[in-house]
Design goal:
Distance between the termini: 58 Å
Helix content: over 70%
Radius of gyration: 28 Å
Low-confidence stretches: 10-16, 202-207, 233-237, 336-340, 369-384, 727-732
Strand content: under 5%
Number of domains: 3
Order of helices and strands: HHHHHHHHHHHHHHHHHHHHHHHHHHHH
Length: 732
């Protein structure tokens, strides 16, 4: 018997899970109903082809990314017609294997190449190509059979459209609401981690700098996702533009809050916190804790239209003001830190930035009305989007494009998998084709990772399906079980790929049993596992052997680009500080670009570590380089937010000289990584940073020292890599 503590601990884990709190449960329930109805009808009417309708309905839900009803309707109809045509042609051509293989290659290339248009078009294109590949495993004996196969795909698509788009009156702009809410929720995590770090006297705190760096990367990723989604509405109707403007402003406020928290993270460096008096640390920790609670309430309000939540935000804001007031009232005696290792004025300035940004977010939510329209998304100019898509296609239609090479690999994988299934006729061989399509990724590391996750989730899910089939023998009850499994599949996308695959496997096994009744669930599960392993192995083999995309060939270029992008921001922040200028739009844009480049560099390094022989061309310490860049950007952010125009005239010349040194050093490091001869020739001419005299204020001196430390670390890493491979030229 399951113990009560075990259940309680499980519920606490589910409640605390960062991945589960943003699960689109309403959309998953809607999709579950859509997927279950055709399966139940297949069991009641003894119509096996309705199982294909169930899969088509699932894929229609899978490809629906939200937005205005009119655009969703047009997009879903286009997907249904394309999928129906692909299914019919594939079923008809299955009688001629050579023709089916050639067409599978062509459709696979088109579906994969569509990813240049973004995730929405790319996913739909890949699903159409998958529908074609899967349908070749069910060749029709005549044109009538192929037509019926195509019709049943269209039936499932039309059912999903009718119920999910036309009848289900949900919030069509929920993805943006969840996106903005996720940003504030992740920032609440960062504030809580800072509270824990400050509350302890250990140098590393309860949560390490690496953990906070991971949280910062998640926040930046979510901010960019929200920005990309909201900016679609820039050319919409006047009412749509007004709503979009509110959404963009709220996202901008979230970014301002995030930047201030990053500055505080660097202000409370590991060498500062231990020397702070206990009472001072307690007050600062309380400010962070209140900030975290307030950000959580804002996140909930972004997702909900409940007026009570806005009252909770007002109460939390009062508590935060009280905590800040206590901190400011007691700073004179509490922050007697020895050797001038901490600047109270800078802390107060940056904390006020956090309070100001949160206040603006609260004002935006209050002004949005009871319907929460501040986080609304509408679709932009569709004609302009299609023109952009066509330009992307033409720009990438060449051998130098990574997307073009990826599409060729998918075309080869599609043709090979279809050929294997048509020649060897394995049981339920379409699972091999389906797995091959969904494991193929633009680079080898991602393909290997997705393949491992899919195989792992498939094994566990197949065991679950076998257990269900052992205890339940009624086709109707098996069809009803499709509901919780499809809900878990659609909700699992927001958790991770393993959870998604874990639910997807029994979902598809039960649907397959309805389509081809009479088999054993255990046999189906074993076939599913075998075909999934074969499909994943095929995808990995083609990614490894055919025009592979290696991160190690371009990592030096990626790191050099991140250094150059960060240098532009840091030097501009230094020049602005020298002039006594406050943060502006230019600095904000440069800061955003620097953070994005650093996160892309870290992701590229992570992919490179998965590749075979990853260290052959790369001798840098990845974590050291990432930490150095983040330390440099964070110190510049702190400098940007805490500029005091008073007393800067005497230090302007020193600041200017320091900015020039940073620019020269970082440009030289980037050039050395690219193997440029000018950097190699001048390797012995680099000098130390300018001396910081007494005209530099305490807060600036600390920030400049951190910038200097980061720049010198980058220089040492570039020199070490340059010595190991002087002639390295990165392939973009």
């Amino acid at each position: 018997m399951v113990s009560v503590p075990f259940v309680q601990n499980t519920l606490r884990w589910l409640a605390a899970s960062r991945a589960l709190r943003h699960v689109p449960l309403t959309d998953a329930l809607r999709g579950g109903i859509i997927c279950t109805v055709p399966a139940v009808l297949a069991a009641i009417l003894h119509a096996p082809l309705l199982s294909w309708s169930a899969i088509a309905a699932f894929w229609t839900c899978f490809a629906d990314s939200g937005g205005r009803r009119r655009t969703r309707l047009a997009f879903a109809m286009s997907f249904g017609l394309a999928g129906s045509l692909a299914s019919g042609v594939a079923s008809w051509s299955g009688e001629w294997p050579v023709l089916a293989v050639v067409l599978a290659a062509a459709v696979g290339f088109a579906g994969a190449f569509a990813r240049v248009g973004g995730p929405r078009i790319g996913l739909s294109g890949l699903l159409v190509a998958t529908a074609f590949g899967v349908s070749t495993a069910f060749p029709g004996h005549d044109f009538v059979h192929a037509t019926r196969y195509a019709a049943y795909f269209l039936y499932g698509n039309l059912w999903a459209i009718g119920f999910g788009v036309l009848l289900w009156r949900g919030d069509h702009y929920a993805p943006v609401r969840r996106g903005v809410a996720a940003c504030f929720a992740e920032m609440a995590d960062l504030a809580f981690e800072l509270s824990q770090c400050t509350a302890t006297s250990r140098a590393d705190g309860v949560t390490s700098a690496d953990a906070r760096g991971a949280t910062r990367a998640r926040v930046r990723t979510r901010l960019e996702a929200v920005r990309d989604t909201v900016l679609i509405v820039s050319q919409g109707q006047p009412s749509a533009r007004a709503c979009a403007s509110q959404a963009i402003e709220l996202a901008t406020t979230a970014e301002q809050t995030f930047v201030a928290l990053v500055a505080l993270d660097h202000l409370l460096a590991p060498d500062v916190v231990p020397v702070m008096p206990h009472r001072a640390r307690a007050l600062v920790s309380t400010v962070f804790a209140e900030t975290a609670e307030l950000l959580k309430e804002i996140a909930l309000c972004c997702k909900s239209a409940c007026p009570t939540l806005r009252g909770e935000i007002r109460q939390r804001l009062v508590s935060l003001d009280a905590a800040i007031g206590r901190l400011q009232a007691r700073t004179s005696g509490l922050f007697a830190v020895p050797h001038e290792q901490f600047d109270v004025a800078t802390l107060a300035a940056v904390v006020s930035r956090v309070r100001s940004a949160i206040g603006r977010a609260q004002a935006l939510l209050r002004a949005s009305g009871a319907d929460g329209s501040a986080v609304t998304l509408t679709d932009g100019n569709e004609q302009s989007s299609w023109r952009s898509f066509s330009r992307q296609l033409s720009a990438n239609l060449n051998a130098d494009s990574s997307w073009f090479r990826y599409a060729l690999r998918v075309a080869l994988a599609s043709a090979t998998s279809v050929c294997l299934v048509l020649y060897f006729r394995p049981g339920h061989g379409y699972w091999l084709i389906l797995t091959t399509f969904f494991t193929m990724q633009p680079n080898f590391a991602s393909t290997l990772k997705i393949s491992a996750h899919r195989v792992g989730g498939t094994v566990i899910g197949a065991m679950l399906a076998a257990a269900l089939g052992f205890f339940i023998h009624s086709p109707l009850w098996l069809a009803i079980l499709v509901f919780p499994l499809s809900v878990g599949t659609l909700a699992g996308r927001a958790v991770n790929y393993i959870v998604y695959t874990l639910f997807l496997t029994p979902h598809f096994i039960l649907v397959a049993e309805l389509g081809q009744p009479g088999g054993s669930e255990l046999t189906l599960a074993l076939m599913r596992m075998a075909n999934s392993v074969a499909g994943a192995a095929l995808g990995v083999a083609i990614s490894l052997l055919v025009w592979p995309h290696w991160e190690r060939h371009r990592i030096a270029h990626v790191v050099a680009t991140a250094i150059e992008t960060s240098a532009r921001y840091v030097t501009q922040a230094l020049w602005a500080a020298a002039a006594g200028a406050d943060s502006d739009v230019l600095l904000a844009g440069l800061r955003r670009q620097a953070c994005i480049a650093t996160d892309q560099m870290e992701a590229s390094m992570g992919r490179m570590r998965i590749e075979p022989n990853a260290g052959v061309r790369w001798d840098m310490d990845d974590k050291t380089v990432v930490a150095a860049l983040r330390r440099t950007i964070g110190a510049a952010t702190l400098l940007e937010l805490s500029v005091d125009p008073a007393g800067l005239s005497s230090s302007a010349q020193t600041m200017g000289a320091f900015a020039q040194w940073v620019e020269d050093e970082m440009a030289w490091s980037a050039a050395l990584l690219r193997g440029e001869s000018s950097a190699t020739d001048n390797s012995g001419k680099r000098g130390p940073p300018p001396l910081l005299d007494d005209s530099i204020t305490l807060s600036m001196r600390h920030a400049l020292q951190r910038i200097s430390s980061g720049v010198e670390t980058l220089r040492e890493s570039a020199e070490r890599d340059g010595r190991s491979s002087k002639a390295r030229i990165a392939v973009a």
